[in-house]
């Protein structure tokens, strides 16, 4: 097996358990480098560090799969890892729908698997893990006997790995429009054409958090996607709910979701640009009791963090202005590039500009089925804040 030796001086990151080895951390390589192959990684002094997959085309040269020298990377390895990920979800009580595999946090770098009741949706985001797709699918069939498995690899990040964007069935074809249950509601999920894997499981716990504050309230949700927060608001006895999203497809699904839960009289949706709409309504001094904001990442790269912050600040400022005194702002950010303290600072700046005082109700992160590893920074990515605005 090809041997990768790290430089003498390397950052503690890898030693402390982070699975990524960057190209500039590597001193020398013994043996052939074939993209996607399994390699052994050693420290400068020759002691074994771990085993993983290599891709010279990627800035992350090796992603480690194990630090146990005796553990081989084969079909059995993937069966064991997936069983372990499933056992963990069962233990913490995420059974029907869950993020079954959250990449690095499940010692399966660049692999994402969402379980929507009897269906599984997979993303293999690096070449080395993509190679093992047949083994992963076999293991999933063994553990779950699912009704269907679908691949949502239509994501640009695969191109950094030299992989094509693609999507399709990894099982016999099935109807990709499914319905899932969450917190006593039902939601349509379009596995084939929905965003990401079709549904945002990471907010499943946070959606329950709005229960008390929406009672009897006029609620505005911007960036509502398929209306999941909106339907929760309706279900929790909001007086009226208005959801906005730029995507016609998302808004059409949101309307169907409201109907599915018999909330169509309370929950209304509009396909508009939320930036423009919030701006106009601020001018018109329109007011709501609760404003919910769950925008997209705004940036995918470190260079553009400032752009993301400007976006977050603008919508939160407008959100605050649209609230009646004592109203509640429910606001989220889903990019790991903006860390929790940066996010809170941004909300604070918006409050100062809007001349509002905030009282924090709760500050949370993603649902527990997306585990956070303290030594892997980017496993903390979702910020979810509820504040009372005076
Ligand atoms: N809260 C949702 C997820 C929201 S994802 C859930 O829990 O399921 C972010 C959404 O913002 C996407 O649906 C995207 O279509 C929408 N979006 C992006 N830019 C927008 C804009 N300028 N105006 C309105 N919606 C926008």
UniProtKB/TrEMBL annotation:
Record keywords: Cytoplasm, Methyltransferase, RNA-binding, rRNA processing, S-adenosyl-L-methionine, Transferase
SMART domains: PUA
Pfam family, one: Methyltrans_SAM
Residue ranges annotated for the PUA domain, each copy included: 2-87
Protein name: Class I SAM-dependent rRNA methyltransferase
Family, per entry: Belongs to the methyltransferase superfamily. RlmI family.
Subcellular location per the Swiss-Prot or TrEMBL entry: Cytoplasm
PROSITE patterns per the UniProt record, alphabetical: PUA
A GO molecular-function annotation: RNA binding
Gene3D superfamilies, alphabetized: PUA domain, RNA methyltransferase domain (HRMD) like, Vaccinia Virus protein VP39
InterPro entries: PUA (IPR002478), PUA-like_sf (IPR015947), PUA_sf (IPR036974), RlmI-like_PUA (IPR041532), SAM-dep_methyl-trfase (IPR019614), SAM-dependent_MTases_sf (IPR029063)
Single GO BP term: methylation
GO annotation, cellular component aspect: cytoplasm
């Amino acid at each position: 097996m090809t041997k990768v030796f790290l430089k003498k001086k390397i950052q503690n990151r890898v030693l402390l358990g982070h699975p990524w080895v960057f190209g500039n951390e590597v001193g020398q390589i013994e043996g052939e480098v074939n993209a996607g192959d399994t390699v052994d990684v050693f420290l400068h002094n020759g002691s074994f560090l771990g085993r993983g997959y290599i891709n010279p085309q990627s800035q992350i040269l090796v992603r480690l799969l194990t630090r146990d020298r005796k553990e081989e990377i084969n079909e059995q390895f993937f069966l064991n890892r997936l069983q372990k990920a499933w056992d963990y979800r069962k233990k913490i009580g995420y059974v029907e729908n869950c993020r079954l595999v959250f990449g690095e946090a499940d010692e399966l770098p660049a692999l994402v698997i969402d379980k929507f009741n009897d269906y599984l949706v997979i993303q293999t985001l690096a070449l080395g893990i993509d190679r093992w797709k047949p083994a992963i699918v076999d293991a999933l069939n063994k553990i779950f006997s699912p009704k269907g498995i679908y691949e949502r690899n239509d994501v640009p990040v695969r191109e950094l790995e030299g992989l094509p964007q693609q999507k399709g069935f990894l099982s016999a074809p099935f109807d990709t429009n499914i319905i899932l249950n969450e917190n006593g509601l039902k939601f349509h999920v379009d596995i084939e054409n929905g965003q990401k894997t079709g549904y945002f499981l990471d907010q499943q716990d946070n959606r329950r958090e709005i229960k008390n504050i929406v009672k009897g309230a006029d609620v505005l949700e911007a960036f509502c996607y398929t209306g999941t927060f909106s339907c929760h608001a309706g279900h929790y006895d909001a007086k009226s709910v208005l959801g906005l999203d730029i995507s016609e497809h998302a808004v059409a699904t949101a309307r169907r979701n409201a109907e599915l839960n018999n909330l169509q009289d309370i929950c209304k949706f509009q396909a508009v640009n939320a930036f423009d709409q919030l701006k106009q309504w601020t001018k018109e001094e329109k007011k709501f009791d609760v404003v919910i904001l769950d925008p997209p990442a705004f940036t995918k790269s470190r260079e553009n963090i400032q752009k993301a912050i400007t976006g977050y600040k603008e919508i939160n400022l407008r959100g605050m202005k649209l609230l009646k005194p004592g109203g509640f702002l429910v606001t989220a950010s889903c990019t790991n590039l903006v860390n929790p303290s940066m996010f809170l600072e941004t909300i604070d700046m918006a409050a100062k500009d809007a001349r509002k005082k905030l009282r924090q109700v709760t500050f949370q992160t993603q649902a527990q089925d997306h585990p956070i590893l303290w030594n892997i920074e980017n496993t903390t990515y979702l910020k979810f804040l509820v504040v009372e605005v005076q």
